[in-house]
Write a structure and sequence with these properties.
The protein has 315 residues and is an alpha/beta fold. The protein has ten helices and 14 strands.
Length: 315
């Protein structure tokens, strides 16, 4: 991988892709950002619009509408392309449509001679990340899904809101499928070094029932947002930016992304949301939390659902 300049190639400039590009420009994370989309006019327009914001940006970024050949010298390819989730549709309903779209995208990316890291955001993200890994032939450490990064952020936000504590001081994970079978890791959730149960005990009027409701709101957040405005894009764009930064700046940050398990948590050959150390080489290491029995059972159920759903399309 060439380290001369940090180039990120974004494939798909719909709501999520263009929000990510905007976040990238505002944070000055990469020196180059190339936009690739089947809708040439939309991407060209995005590139022009973003370039007009450069005088106000923290650092110069070269932004242009490009082609798959431009992936060759990219450090990271971020895939936000694909069919969107419609109201009433689950993330898994999207599967068949998106696997075939991904096959052609990943084939074109790899044809360019690309040898970096692929970050996948399209839903159902765990299965599409697995498909990307298979189609690309890249090592599993270099294919990353956005996983439960947004779910964990929603969880931290709502817990912080509930206890009136800054969300950045809340340490709590959602793991499993980015979808209906995900689960909260209550056994490791803490705020400022105290467990969430300790906070409950010392706060009057706060109950475990409220906490269970917080998780349901986290799990179903996308449905509520889609109902109101048609799609979710700001939160996930910020999450993708966070992963990009962790890679390019070699941070060794722990983020709940979709990673390929190889014996961790007792499972293998599945991409699923777990905390992992992210750096310049991609997924440096999966962090294996000591789950209690109920959490382990729910996590295994999540793995099972993903594997069964994936089977017919990944033959």
């Amino acid at each position: 991988m060439g380290n001369h300049v940090n180039r990120v190639a974004l494939i798909g400039t719909g709501m999520v892709g263009s929000s990510y590009a905007f976040a990238m420009l505002n944070h000055g994370v990469a020196e180059e950002l190339v936009l690739i989309d089947i809708n040439k006019e939309k991407s060209e327009g995005d590139a022009m619009d973003l370039n007009h914001g450069l005088p106000f940006a923290p650092s110069p970024t070269k932004i242009w509408y490009g082609q798959y050949e431009d992936c060759k010298s990219a450090e990271i390819v971020v895939i936000c392309a694909g069919a969107n989730q419609k109201p009433g549709e689950t993330r898994l309903d999207l599967l068949e449509k998106n696997v075939s779209i991904f096959k052609s995208i990943v084939t074109d990316v790899m044809k360019s001679g690309f040898d970096g890291i692929i970050l996948v955001a399209t839903n159902p993200v765990d299965i599409l990340t697995y498909a990307t890994w298979k189609f690309s032939g890249l090592p599993k450490e270099r294919v990353i899904g956005s996983g439960t990064i947004l779910d964990s952020a929603r969880f931290r936000f709502l817990l912080g809101d509930y206890f009136s504590i800054d969300t950045r001081n809340v340490h709590a994970y959602i793991i499993g499928e980015h979808g209906d079978t995900e689960l909260p890791v209550w056994s490791h959730a803490n705020i400022g070094g105290r467990t969430v149960s300790e906070w409950l005990d010392s706060s009057s009027g706060k109950t475990q029932k409220d906490l269970d409701e917080i998780f349901v709101n986290v799990r179903d957040a996308a449905y509520h947002i889609i109902e109101r405005k048609g799609a979710t894009y700001y939160g996930i764009a910020m999450g993708l930016l966070r992963v990009t930064k962790a890679i390019l700046q070699n941070e060794n940050s722990i983020l709940t992304i979709s990673a390929c398990l190889d014996g961790e948590y007792g499972h293998s050959d599945v991409y699923i949301g777990v905390p992992a150390v992210i750096n310049r080489s991609g997924i440096h290491k999966i962090v294996e939390l000591d789950l209690n029995q109920e959490e382990q059972e729910k996590f295994s159920h999540s793995v099972q659902v993903l594997k069964e759903t994936m089977q017919p399309v990944m033959k």
